[in-house]
Amino acid sequence: MTTQRTTTGGGGGENPGRRPSSRQQGTGRRVPRRLILALVPALALLGARAWLVEPFTVSSDSMEPAIAQGSVVLMYKPAASGTVGRGVVVAFTSPEDGHVAIKRVIAVAGQSVAIRDAELFVDGLHVDEPFIDHSRIDATYFGPVTVPAGSIFVLGDNRGVSIDSRDYGAVPLTAVQGTLLTGRT
Predict the structure, then answer these.
(1) Is there a catalytic annotation at residue 94?
(2) Is residue 62 annotated as a catalytic residue, yes or no?
(3) In Å, what is the CA distance from 98 to each residue of 11, 58, 91, 92, 160?
(4) Dihedral Cα 146, 111, 130, 94, nearest 10 deg
(5) Domain ranges of the chain
């Protein structure tokens, strides 16, 4: 048995049982395409800022010369939930005052840290730091200390003025908000 379909022409005639389209009604209920094209990228940017990347202004000179005071940097948020390695610049909640601070990860859990005459040693081995201006930090001594589990040891690149893990101890990984997309060597 064959079924026949009946089609109506698009001439705007009445079609009983069918509701006219919004174009036929002229009600203006359709969302303008331009509005959709503007909203989609705007919502994508807001989502990216909320969950992926957030800009912020550096308010301290503790990371100079690598990151100057007043610079706008981007923080990559998903990195906060992952493993943070040595040399990465992180944003975290400072144990000192609760504000966001940025510092470089020098050592991770289980590693020992020492500074001898402004030279960094991790697990007894000298660490080359080309991003440090050693003329600013002569005669600095610290440690050795061992980084506890679930923590990182952070230092500012401008060691002469930076308040960092030498002052408040290791930073818990749970305090890390993200990594900077700049400042990594």
Answers:
(1) no
(2) yes
(3) 69, 15, 12, 9, 22
(4) -60
(5) 54-180
Taking CA 60 as the corner, what is the angle to CA 57 and CA 65, rounded to the nearest 5 degrees? 95
Pick the catalytic residue: 62, 151, 162, 165?
62
List 60, 94, 103, 165, catalytic entry: 103
pLDDT at residue 15, as a whole number: 52
128-184: pLDDT as tens digits = 988 887 777 767 889 899 999 999 999 998 888 899 999 999 999 999 988 887 644
Could you tell me the pLDDT band of residue 37, with boundaries at 50, 70 and 90? low
Task: Give the sheet arrangement for strand 171-172, strand by strand.
Answer: 53-57, 72-76, 176-180, 89-93, 100-108, 151-155, 171-172
Pick the CATH number of 54-180 from 1.10.10.10, 2.60.40.10, 3.40.50.300, 2.10.109.10: 2.10.109.10
pLDDT at 175: 92
